[in-house]
Amino acid sequence: MPCAEFGGVTAFLDRIEENARRQAAARHLINAALNCGADAVRFLEIIHAHLSPGHPIPNPYGLMTEAREWASWASTAERKAYALACYEALPPADQVAFLSHVSGEAAA
After folding, report:
1. Is residue 97 within 8 Å of residue 107, measured between CB atoms?
2. How far apart are CA 72 and CA 67, in angstroms?
3. Contacts of 85 (CB under 8 A, 6+ apart)
4. pTM greater than the 0.90 cutoff
5. What is the 3-state secondary structure of the chain?
6. Least packed by Cβ within 10 Å: which of 3, 44, 56, 103?
7. What angle do helix axes 40-51 and 8-34 make, rounded to 10 degrees?
8. CA atoms within 13 A on the CB side of 46
9. Does the CA dihedral 24-26-29-34 come out positive or negative?
10. Nearest-5° Cα angle at 79, 47 to 49
11. Are 52 and 75 in contact (CB under 8 A)?
């Protein structure tokens, strides 16, 4: 009997072929990174930037929900950069309130 008559077998075989294609592509990417010499770190930074979620998209109706969702996708470096930039952009009184909030101290 041809594979198509087994229903899910063709889909299973297609997944195996797709995984083999992805593995070959990943191998090419790894080889490219390994052969970049002094530019390897920059090459990997470009790949990381392409794969990262990008900047947060504000949603005035669910701001904290959106921020938390973005943070769950972002890299540690992105979370640190945005957290520090946002903290630095706060007025001094809000910085004090923020630090009090994250440290668990009662706001004065």
Report:
1. yes
2. 9
3. none
4. no
5. CCHHHHCHHHHHHHHHHHHHHHHHHHHHHHHHHHCCHHHHHHHHHHHHHHHCCCCCCCCCCCHHHHHHHHHHHCCHHHHHHHHHHHHHHCCHHHHHHHHHHHHCCCCC
6. 103
7. 140
8. 9
9. negative
10. 10
11. yes
Q: Which amino acid is located at 43 in the chain?
A: F
Tokens linked to 58: 């504000």
Quick: pLDDT tens for 33-52.
Answer: 888 888 888 888 888 777 77
Token readout for 20 is 């083999």
List Cβ neighbours of 4 (8 Å cut-off, separation of 6 or more).
Answer: 10
Q: In the structure encoding, which two tokens stand for residue 81, read together? A: 């950069």
Nearby residues of 13 by Cβ (< 8 Å), 6 or more positions away? 3
Dihedral angle sign, alpha carbons of residues 76, 80, 45, 70: positive
